[in-house]
Amino acid sequence: MNNSESTNLNKFISSTGICSRREAEKLIVAGRVTINGKPTQLGNRVFEGDIVKVDGKPLKAKPKTIYIALNKPVGIVCTTDSKERKNIVKFVGHPQRLFPIGRLDKPSEGLIFLTNDGDIVNKILRAGNNHEKEYIVTVNKEINERFITRMGNGIPILGTVTKKCKVTQINSNTFKIILTQGLNRQIRRMCEYLGYEVTKLKRTRIMNVALGSLKIGDWRELSSHEMDKINELVKTSVKTEEASKEKSPNNKKNKPKSKNYKSKFGRQRRSR
């Protein structure tokens, strides 16, 4: 049986719904995964009939795929770490083991997705995929047209300059901003650079899904129509680390290194 008839170990683990691919890699590196009773390492592949175990327990068939939208309250932490008393998984209390897609800072609130589908996590989060996220932000003092213009044109933070984005003033100290990237504490850092402090940050939309009337602390399953649209938006998503590397703040050269880059990644085969 050749490699085309097998699955990368981290992808196989993720496909069972117990964790994301990145978390699966950590399990492998920690020596907690075996294939047919033998120790594993990153890059191992799983063939039909193989028995994969994590901590000595065989992986079960993938449960029903779940996608939910949560209106995260302030104070809830976007982690699956059971040591964190206010972690998002405990807060939701879903019978399936879910993990968040991305994160919202502890002092922030609003829309966040949770799922047991590791593949879609990667497709949505890759830095090069330009999926929109919309926020309503309140700051500690009055804003003006110059503030709006500077926020929209890019702010130097974390060794890079933020991508141009759409910023609209709502009132004297509140604005709407639509980002297509997700640097650490990006909006707060952008405001701090201009001498402002964020007093309230609420995410109201991810891609085609809006927060709508979902109350703080409540969650709902995404509709089939919403998922159809999300899958359409991510079907050409770059699924490798290249997307993130190309947009990395530490990567000064954003141009492809080879002429073959476009053929490899610009016309990526459609995902499942």
UniProtKB/TrEMBL annotation:
Q: Where is this region: Disordered?
A: 235-272
Compositional bias segments (type: Basic residues): 250-272
Basic and acidic residues compositional bias, start-end = 235-249
Q: Which domain of life is it from?
A: Bacteria
Which reactions does this protein catalyse?
A: uridine(2604) in 23S rRNA = pseudouridine(2604) in 23S rRNA; uridine(35) in tRNA(Tyr) = pseudouridine(35) in tRNA(Tyr)
Entries under InterPro entries matching the protein:
PsdUridine_s_RsuA/RluB/E/F_cat, PsdUridine_synth_cat_dom_sf, PsdUridine_synth_RsuA/RluA, PsdUridine_synth_RsuA/RluB/E/F, PsdUridine_synth_RsuA/RluB_CS, RsuA_PseudoU_synthase, S4_RNA-bd, S4_RNA-bd_sf
Report the EC number(s), separated by commas if there are several: 5.4.99.-
- What GO biological process terms does the UniProt entry carry, in alphabetical order? enzyme-directed rRNA pseudouridine synthesis
Tell me the keywords, alphabetical order.
Isomerase, Lyase, RNA-binding
- A Pfam match is S4
Q: Which residues form the RNA-binding S4 domain?
A: 7-64
**The protein's enzyme class:** isomerase
What would be an example GO MF term here? Answer: lyase activity
SUPFAM superfamilies named in the record: Alpha-L RNA-binding motif (SSF55174), Pseudouridine synthase (SSF55120)
Q: Which family does it belong to?
A: Belongs to the pseudouridine synthase RsuA family.
Designated name of the protein: Pseudouridine synthase
In its UniProt entry, the species of origin is given as Tenacibaculum jejuense
